[in-house]
Amino acid sequence: MVKIHPDLTTSGAGEETSSPYLTTEQETFTIWMKSLVFNTNGCTVFDSKGKIIYRVDNYNSKSCREVYLMDLSGHVLFTLRRQKFGLFKTWEGYRSSSGTAESTTKLEYFRVKNNVFQIPNKDSSSSYRVIAGSCRNDEQYCYKMVTRGSSLAIEDNCGKLLAEVKRKQSRNGLKLGDDVLTMTVESQVDHSFIIGLVLAHSLINCIL
């Protein structure tokens, strides 16, 4: 059986940063679109050494209206909620201040919206608009998610690549199942934010 996370012996440790989720160099993660709770609906994210760092447990539900991104210990990092704005499918994510769903505030948030007029297919590309901001300073930042075939790229408003998600391959080049993905995050990027966007994309497309 092929492992769904990399088996690496090298360490990518860097200097401590202000956020434990901020990359100090390019990092690679493995996303398994399954919960570890009896292989039910959800998502499990491994770092490059095979350690679980994020999880989503939806149990027997799919396409829930509210989803929690948690760390391994079950502390809520983001609460994702489905919204409805006209003809657009929209998901919003709110960062938790103390690790519980009840402590989720709208101080730090992101919103992912797709265009209902796009007709994606296996070989075409489609894009999603992302707005992130903080109510502390009323600033907003724009990002874009672009799907090209089976890959997903996350870019800033200048088109700079921040992260990419695609089907995971074994060491001999064999692609694993559709539910096993590789996520590459560039340096100085909050990977908890990136995985939140990936989850929102999966929820919009009824994958999660």
What does it look like?
This protein is mainly β and 208 residues long. It is built from 1 helix and 12 strands. The protein has a 12-stranded antiparallel sheet with strand order 3-2-1-12-11-10-9-8-7-6-5-4, with helices on one face. Strand 10 (151-156) and strand 11 form a beta hairpin. This is Tubby-like C-terminal. It comes from Arabidopsis thaliana x Arabidopsis arenosa.
For the structure shown, list the relevant keywords.
disordered N terminus, mainly beta, single chain, 12 strands, about 210 residues, 12-stranded antiparallel beta sheet, globular
Placed side by side, the strands forming the largest sheet appear as: 3-2-1-12-11-10-9-8-7-6-5-4
Mean pLDDT: 83
Radius of gyration, in Å, reads: 16 Å
Largest sheet: 12 strands, antiparallel
- Total number of strands: 12
H and E string: EEEEEEEEEEEEH
Unreliable stretches covering 5 or more consecutive residues: 1-17
Q: Can you give the helix content as a percent range? A: under 10%
Beta-sheet strand percentage? over 45%
Q: Please work out how many helical segments DSSP would assign.
A: 1
Shape: globular
Derived from helix and strand composition plus strand pairing, the structural class reads mainly beta
Q: In angstroms, what separates the terminal alpha carbons? A: 24 Å
Protein name: Tubby-like C-terminal
InterPro entries: LOR
Pfam family, one: LOR
